[in-house]
Amino acid sequence: MATPIEFIFDFSSPYSYLASEQIEPLAARHGRSVDYQPMLLGAAFKATGQPVLVDVPLKGEYSKRDFARSARYAGVPFTMPQPFPIATVGAARAFLWLKDSDPARSLAFLHAAFRTYFAQGRNLSENPVLADVLRQVSVDPEQAFAAIAQPAIKERLKAQVDALLARGVFGAPYIVVDGEPFWGNDRLPQIERWLEKGPF
Amino acid sequence: MATPIEFIFDFSSPYSYLASEQIEPLAARHGRSVDYQPMLLGAAFKATGQPVLVDVPLKGEYSKRDFARSARYAGVPFTMPQPFPIATVGAARAFLWLKDSDPARSLAFLHAAFRTYFAQGRNLSENPVLADVLRQVSVDPEQAFAAIAQPAIKERLKAQVDALLARGVFGAPYIVVDGEPFWGNDRLPQIERWLEKGPF
């Protein structure tokens, strides 16, 4: 069995959302699975001195246009959420907790969380919204909030973010196939070529 | 006749080079021509506070890998030149002078200049290299250097850069189709869709 595709994401990254809607069918076409790994882009931007994309003059305005057009191009529902970006540490911890305890449900949670923020435009950083996402995938929010308040899961996310930074992850989605890194939703065609015909 | 595709570029931009090797056949498939417009990315980066891509920690290293892989993906010869980036004001002035005086030859010059820097890795900011590019397209370097030393052509480039900044151009390639801006070599598939089926 070929190694899984590593899909490194942040719940506040529009291009991560767009790629998350396409990566599983793409992987499946080539007999691969997807290993989702949450990142906190704030930490990556701090480490690399990058500003938040939408705050860059001129480029920020273009980016919002590009998010929406790239979503239409991919056939994925999209709403530019307000506020943007948001803190995603709670959602990331919940994802990691589910990934450890109930992997199948963690996938459903991931897609529900992304869609809640980027298709419905609801603020995923607010506990009532996160609770609603948990209920959508039949997880008891009270149990989840208790779990992610534990030091163990906080440490788990922190260690993961540090490990990803050490591996050179500076943005998201950051997709690793057979050790080869691809950054951005717009690298999906190169990933497809790689899976189809091997390294190029 | 449909309006030309505006292709805004910098001779020191690897993704501009990659797109320049693909845009004319793409445009021709849909009955369009290409209007090349030189930009100076240094001015755009200053206006938007962006650093030079290869200088960004982590992202810079990835980018060099991505330049080469994206070139292989596109089937375009590529060498990472040293030094990089370079000043392209001389080449941009020569291009504009030819565009005004001999449009067909300006296209040949553009491709020869890009290939000299990014396929052969020769430093286009040095006058002997620029002279060689001019000779490749049967332009007398002495005549060209005299022409681009005139205030008129310097003013022409400055006015063009200011106009492009005023239009929101923050990077390159920046490709405008029917008023819709597309940034980056990786937006060529969206441009193809736009030309094929209209706005989306």
Question: Can you give a write-up of this model?
Answer:
2 copies of one chain form a homodimer. The first copy, chain A, has 200 residues and is α+β, with helices and mostly antiparallel strands. Chain A has one domain (5-197): Glutaredoxin. Helix content of chain A is 56%, strand content 9%. Chain A has 10 helices and 4 strands, in the order βααβαααααααββα. Chain A has helices at residues 14-20, 23-29, 41-48, 59-74, 89-101, 103-118, 127-136, 141-148, 151-166, 188-197, and strands at 5-9, 34-38, 174-177, 180-183. A 4-stranded mixed beta sheet of chain A has the order 2-1-3-4, sandwiched between helices. The longest helix of chain A is centred in the first third of the chain and has 16 residues, at 59-74. Chain A starts with a strand and ends with a helix. Chain A binds chain B through residues 44, 47-51, 56-59, 61-62, 65-66, 69-70, 72-73, 165, 168-171, 181, 183-184, 186-187, 189-190, 193, 200, and chain B through 44, 47-51, 56-59, 61-62, 65-66, 69-70, 72-73, 165, 168-171, 181, 183-184, 186-187, 189-190, 193, 200.
